[in-house]
Amino acid sequence: MEALKKVAGVTAAQYVTDGMTVGLGTGSTAYYFVEEIGRRVNEEGLQIVGVTTSSVTTKQAENLGIPLKSVDDIDSIDLTVDGADEVDKDFNGIKGGGAALLMEKIVATPTKEYIWVVDASKMVEHLGAFKLPVEVVQYGADRLFRVFEKAGYKPSFRMKGKDRLVTDMKNYIIDLDLGCIEDPVAFGHLLDETVGVVEHGLFNGMVDKVIVASKDGVTVLEAPKAV
Ligand code: 5RP
After folding, report:
1. What sign does the CA torsion over 117, 44, 35, 50 have?
2. Residue 87 to residue 125: CA distance in whole angstroms
3. How far is Cα 144 from Cα 146, in angstroms, rounded to an integer?
4. Which of 23, 35, 73, 206 sits at a 20 to 30 Å CA gap from 116?
5. How many whole angstroms from its chain centre is CA 223?
6. Which residues pair with 220 in a beta bridge?
7. Angle, nearest 10°, between helix axes 55-64 and 30-44?
8. Rounded CA gap, 36 and 42, in Å?
9. Angle, to 10 degrees, between the axis of helix 2-13 and the axis of helix 30-44?
10. Rounded average pLDDT over 195-199
11. What is the best residue among 5, 24, 29 to mutate for testing ligand 1's pocket, by most ligand atoms within 8 Å of CB?
């Protein structure tokens, strides 16, 4: 599995060229992409500026000597490479398994070419077997939890040890055990309109390419262009 993640990450790095502003994703697959970018910066003199999606990736990129900019100091990003937890046939996906979904969506939004790197186990018929992460402000989080419970979403607070996990943006994560999300777009809109929800892990129709590594090799899936 680790080898597949590495293949996907290194393949994605081939899309990076001199002069680009590059979004650096979070997670165990994006890790290999960032490592490869670091290698190319150091060994090949690749000239890029990175924009990170979590404190973990910031630390990794700094250790590798990748030049970084804040998302506040850029207007657009040429290419972002990130992982995903599930991807369906309509190129909708669930992200946030690594608790970085808010920063990841903020970086993905001004990105011109958005690429996910996954192993084949992440490709699914319907989203929802993976618990959907929802980032909520701390104020009112218990009330919101009960709202989700009453709606039948089987919520659970993401924990770190015996405490609730606090994200880089100082929020909580409530994971929803939905089983199958029949209409990810509609459910995404519903969460967008829920007060107290800062962001959710449904990344619908955002991705341009999915690089899928399996034991048979690498496949690059292209999302249909919006008309
Ligand atoms: C972090 C994420 C990750 O990209 C996602 O969880 C996939 O991670 P991994 O490659 O480790 O399976 O969304 O918030």
Report:
1. negative
2. 8
3. 5
4. 73
5. 17
6. 211
7. 20
8. 10
9. 50
10. 98
11. 29
